[in-house]
Amino acid sequence: MERKQLEAVRQCLNGRRLLLSELPFDRGWIDYCLKNHYISSEPALFQSPSGWHCRRCGATATHLFSSHFCHICQRDCMYCRHCLKIGKAASCHSLFTWIKDEFFYPVKENACVWSGQLSALQQQAAAVLKHAVETETCTALVWAVCGAGKTELLYPALDECFRLGKRVAIAAPRTDVIKELEPRLKEAFPSIETSVLYGGRRKQAIQAQLVLATTHQLMRYYQTFDVLVVDEVDAFPYSYDASLQYAVQQAKKPNATTILLSATPSSSLLRKKDLLIAKIPKRFHNHPLPVPRTEWIGNWRSALKRKRIPSIVTKWLTTYDQYPKMIFLPSIETLQTFSELLAERKIDHAAVYAEAANRHADIAAFRKKKHNLLLTTTILERGVTVENVQVAVLGSEDRIFTAACLTQISGRVGRKARFPSGDIVFWHYGRTKAMLQAIQHIKQMNKEAFA
């Protein structure tokens, strides 16, 4: 019985760092494991001269901590507000992890069954990543245009990982990206045990060799991954939330290889020392990136308030009536207003945003062509591929549409070899620097690709 219980603890805590409330074991058994050095514990929160620190999410800002009377310690207890959604980490709580022996993963030769072919540029980038995996303790960046086939060029490096018995995580800031990756990775590596983690996902293999997860989910891991891939490293919220970057660092082994993927890396990332860079300015199908066009739409906010859809929008919808279409809007309020106006005119569509209850179902229905018009906020600026889609941005002058965001939105168009072109239009009430920068960036990539 003891052996079975210890194995259960190991399966639960190897490579993870969890609160007592997250463990399916009674306190007596936890104390036994602590006494016999199978597991270790450390305070979830600790205090230094500079203030409180959360060991799980890395929070240090004073406003991210609060206190209340605790029924466990019977006194005022500090807790971290920043990572409260995944369980309360308080000053009287501990984080537990397995320390007894290392968990070994099976060696798999030729785990990749993908039969596609990489382009010459993809092969060069794949070679850089494979070298990074073999070198260890290094960071590699794949700087590739939207639609360059970043997922596929990972396959040789992943195959090498599994040949060496390494454990791998592929993380992305947004659930939609993980949901897009899941079927592709499982099809390419069917013999590798894979778990897919995002909010609401249940019953996944805890010790899977390949983990696909949102970056938030990495807060529960600790020094376990030999290779950690961060997709869309420039995307919100990862690029703005230090706790997610902290989670990535905590989840890696000290000698881990880090692989970063981005179409629009920041200048600070490109300046990082000892960074291996593989640049791909061309899509896998060897066609140029569709260049956005700008179109003045006038005071579109005023038009929507008067319950009018600008004529430019109506004309565009008619022109591409038989095509799948996406319209990006700057806010949930604008999206809902626009959606109501379309509904009044009996124009079939779906509307999605981060908190929308039917978001994933509506996106799936759009992919299956049950709707040919999808309204969305920037939540779908990346990670979604729809064949032959035409894209418009309403209110592209809004500050939420940064140059990187507009570049990613433009990257939704022309991703498939059968339909390598398409329309991407920025409807604006005044052109912005971000719009011009996005257009210039895309033109520059095309120039490098076809010089």
From TrEMBL:
Record domain Helicase C-terminal: where: 312-451
Keywords carried by this UniProt record: ATP-binding, DNA-binding, Nucleotide-binding
A Pfam short name: Helicase_C
Domain Helicase ATP-binding: 131-283
SUPFAM superfamilies documented for this protein: P-loop containing nucleoside triphosphate hydrolases
The UniProt record lists the keyword Glycoprotein: no
InterPro entries, sorted: DEAD/DEAH_box_helicase_dom, Helicase_ATP-bd, Helicase_C-like, P-loop_NTPase
GO molecular function terms listed in the Swiss-Prot or TrEMBL record: 3'-5' DNA helicase activity; ATP binding; DNA binding
GO biological process, alphabetically ordered: DNA recombination; DNA replication initiation; double-strand break repair
Protein name (record): Late competence protein ComFA
Source organism (scientific name): Shouchella clausii (strain KSM-K16)
Lineage: Bacteria, Bacillati, Bacillota, Bacilli, Bacillales
Name of encoding gene: comFA
